[in-house]
Amino acid sequence: MTEARVLHAQLHLLDRQVVHDRDGRLVCKVDDLELALDEQGRPYVTAILMGPLALGPRLGGVLGRLMTGVARLLGAQDPPRLPMADVSRVASAVHVGGDLTPPALERWVRTRLIEPIPGAWHETE
Amino acid sequence: MRLSDLLARPVRDSSGRPAGQVADVRLVQDGPLLRQVQHAFRVAGLIVVTRHTGRLFGYERGPAIKGPWLVRAVLKVLHRNTRYVPWEHVDRIDDDGVLLRVPLDELTSVHDLYQDSGP
Q1: pTM score, two decimals?
Q2: Which residues of A touch B2 (CB under 8 A)?
Q3: Cβ–Cβ of B30/A4 closer than 8 Å?
Q4: How far is C-alpha B59 from the geometric centre of its chain's CA atoms?
Q5: pLDDT for residue B64
Q6: What is the C-alpha separation between B12 and B50, in angstroms, rounded?
Q7: Among B3, B91, B66, B55, residue whose Cα is nearest residue A50
Q8: Phi-psi region of A55 (alpha: psi -120 to 50; beta: other; left: phi over 0)
């Protein structure tokens, strides 16, 4: 039985880059971590939280409130989450697998602005 | 609950005396199984500092702690008030911060974490 791995949240996880395993794409930064309670009432990490709704409250102050305010104006309800079960490796970056849903703003820009441009599609598509 | 609900929160001991604030949270990968694949990272304890900045750079937890005696001695002096609180010693978390079950004197120094081994 190997000894369980030890990490420090602030030192090894927060603000680290998240990289997608499949294509090495940079996904996000670790803006906050979601905790749940186990049967003994001890907290454990369930997901990585990202985006302005995760970082804003952590920063606090005027900048933090501005960040969350703008995100709510754009219709965001909760920060996007990456389940910890998808995390394959924690090194200098956090590596995740699984299928990622593209951020809402990116999807909107792609469908509304980019795709209508003639020649925006590859010939194979 | 989020991790940021714990970080930088003021900590009081069992008699209500201020013990500092939470600088970091120690996670151990022995929590519940996630999707039957891997264990979750469980909150094992809090690292509490008395300094106002509340930020640590990890020297007191890195390879330096096993380094040359002079480095060790300097770190020991710099972090003499940096304490480790196992999660079992946390009584509750309310609007005023983290309340502990134990008096301040019973808290161990962060150095004691690395007497044997560990990252």
Answers
A1: 0.83
A2: 32-35, 49, 54, 57
A3: yes
A4: 14
A5: 60
A6: 11
A7: B3
A8: alpha
